[in-house]
Design a protein that fits this description.
Helix content is 49%, strand content 18%. The protein is an alpha+beta fold. It has three domains: 156 residues, Beta-Lactamase (2-Layer Sandwich); 81 residues, Beta-Lactamase (2-Layer Sandwich), CATH 3.30.450.20; 145 residues, Histidine kinase-like ATPase, C-terminal domain (Heat Shock Protein 90), CATH 3.30.565.10. The strands form three sheets. A five-stranded antiparallel beta sheet has the order 6-5-9-8-7, sandwiched between helices. A hairpin with a 5-residue loop joins strand 5 and strand 6. Helix 10 runs antiparallel to helix 11 and helix 13 runs antiparallel to helix 14. The chain starts with 9 loop residues before the first helix and ends in a 16-residue tail after the last strand. It is an enzyme of class 2 (transferase). One of its GO terms (molecular function) is ATP binding. This is histidine kinase. Keywords: ATP-binding, Cell membrane, Kinase, Membrane, Nucleotide-binding, Phosphoprotein, Transferase, Transmembrane, Transmembrane helix, Two-component regulatory system.
Length: 532
């Protein structure tokens, strides 16, 4: 014998389970409705039997017949009332419970089959009882003479078959309604199952579970952040990498992006207010590349790639490329100087050759010494020396103001290198052949950085836009997008509680001022080295 198996397909399981539930609910509902109807019919029958008994007992002739034990009169009266009321029986007894009337004359003179004592005590009784004529709804009342003396009882019974007949006639309508509801429910279930079959592509339940497990493993295993939004902009799903890159709480599902992220380009890109492919954005000190794709239901799926390390490498590559170009130019200049020196020696002008050597070596040393007097942090001094060499080759005069002073007490030299390197690069791009001026001041533990240039400056209406991720006034190189440097500088400043402002400087161009609180250690405090 082949054993029945539960269907594997989603729509088949839904159809079968819903059909079973619909049939069950319909049956239970019909049963719950019929149960009180049956009880109500029983109560109604007992009340009718009691009313017939009361009318019979109100006849003085019936009471006299019971008192005189006149069976003939009692039988004649009882049968006349039974036929008129269509009762199953009307039994009259004396004060001992002996029948004076019965539908079966042979039972007259015998004691009744049910207890007559409650009625003989003066109580009116209703009940569903089994007697000699079967199960009936009964009503019993005492028989009283005009002086109030109880001389017997009247017991009236209505057949259970008549009660059940009324119930069956009513149940037909109830069952018809239940059947109509069942048909409608099964039809709706069939329509829903067909629609679910189309939506699930007739996939099996086991396959759905496997797909869910695979999806969870894939989402949490990939190294890209993934964020799914519903049509209202609420987060449906965020994998582990998205939580890390965006610094979102674990319970972010159901909340909107605008509630979780500060206003800015990143929130605009995630919500679709800014559109495009491979859009750069900044979250804290991370550089992210965001791609957003709309879904058919009006939501969206967004992927996030962390380009922080790549951006740092690209910037280092840019610096290296600049230094390479500067070294190449210096090599060419060095060759010219060597040729000059060789010519002086061949002409026998040894004194002029010695003076030429002293002059050339003294120029580079003097510049390094000037920077070192004002900037005691070796990393920052090296950066400024390198930038000065690049500036020379580009025909730009890079200077450190005489009132600058930076002690060798930085908490995080790399943060200052990022800030200063971006500002100096932007200043040199803005002032080709002009002047760039750097000012570094220590005020307690706060470091103030100012970079001014002699370029065209920044219009007042653009002084906030220059800090937006992705906005730039320069052509972007092929290897990376522009518009992230100033955004990173601003995020670094704000992360430490500082600020970044732009205005007009003393050279006529733009002046960027950065305030970095707690950037310097207190006197006598040793630096904490990372990865020591």
């Amino acid at each position: 014998m082949r054993r029945l198996r539960w269907p594997r397909r989603v729509f088949a399981q839904l159809l079968l389970s819903q059909a079973v539930v619909t049939v069950g609910v319909t049956a239970v509902t019909a049963g719950l409705f019929l149960a009180p109807v049956s009880a109500e019919l029983d109560r109604d029958a007992m009340q009718r039997a009691l009313s017939i008994a009361q009318v019979t007992a109100a006849d003085p002739a019936v009471a006299r017949a019971a008192a005189d034990r006149d069976a003939a009169t009692a039988q004649d009266t009882a049968e006349r009332i039974r036929r008129a009321s269509r009762a199953e029986f009307v039994v009259i007894t004396d004060d001992r419970g002996i029948r004076l009337s019965h539908t079966d004359p042979a039972r007259i003179g015998l004691r009744v089959s049910t207890d007559p004592e409650p009625a003989l005590r003066g109580e009116s009784v209703t009940a569903i009882q089994d007697g000699t004529l079967g199960r009936t709804a009964r009503g019993k009342v005492p028989l009283r003479l005009p002086d109030g003396r109880i001389v017997g009882e009247v017991s009236v019974g209505l057949s259970d078959d008549s009660i059940r007949g009324r119930l069956v006639s009513m149940a037909g309508g109830i069952l018809l309604c239940a059947g109509a509801g069942l048909v409608v429910g099964l039809a709706a279930t069939l329509v829903l199952a067909r629609r679910l079959k189309r939506r699930t592509h007739n996939i099996a339940v086991a396959d759905i579970a496997a797909l869910l497990i695979e999806r969870e493993a894939m989402l949490h295993g990939i190294r890209e952040g993934m964020l799914a939004l519903d049509p209202a902009g609420r987060i449906r799903l965020a994998n582990d990498e998205a939580l890390r890159l965006l610094a979102l709480p674990d319970d972010c599902a159901g909340r909107t992006v605008d509630d979780l992220l500060p206003p800015g380009r990143l929130a605009d890109v995630l919500t679709g207010r800014v559109e495009g492919a491979d859009l750069p954005a900044v979250r804290d000190d991370r550089v992210l590349v965001v791609n957003r794709m709309a879904t058919a239901d009006g939501g969206a799926v967004t992927t996030l790639r962390d380009r922080t390390e790549l951006e740092s490498l690209v910037r280092e590559l840019d610096h290296t490329r600049g230094l390479t170009e500067a070294l190449r130019a210096q090599d060419h200049e060095h060759a010219n100087r060597m040729h000059t020196l060789l010519g002086l020696l061949e002409l026998g002008r040894h004194d002029q050759a010695a003076a030429f050597i002293s002059e050339q070596s003294g120029t580079q040393a003097a510049r390094a010494a000037r920077i070192g007097r004002h900037v005691q942090d070796p990393h920052t001094a090296a950066l400024l020396a390198g930038k000065a060499a690049v500036a020379d080759e580009r025909g730009i005069r890079l200077t450190v103001t005489p009132d600058s002073h930076l002690p060798d007490a930085l908490h995080d030299p790399r943060a200052l290198l990022t800030v200063l390197g971006n500002l100096v690069d932007n200043a040199m791009d803005a002032a080709p052949g002009g002047t760039v001026e750097v000012r570094l001041r220590a005020v307690g533990s706060t470091l103030l950085v100012e970079v001014a240039d002699s370029g065209p400056g920044i219009p007042a209406d653009l002084r906030e836009r220059v800090f937006e991720e992705g906005w730039t006034s320069k052509d972007a190189p092929a290897h990376r997008p522009r518009g992230l440097g100033l955004a990173l500088v601003r995020r670094l400043a704000e992360r430490t509680g500082g600020r970044l402002a732009v205005g007009t400087g003393p050279l006529g161009g733009a002046r960027f001022t950065v305030e970095l609180p707690e950037a310097l250690r207190a006197a006598g405090t040793e630096p904490v080295l990372e990865n020591a």
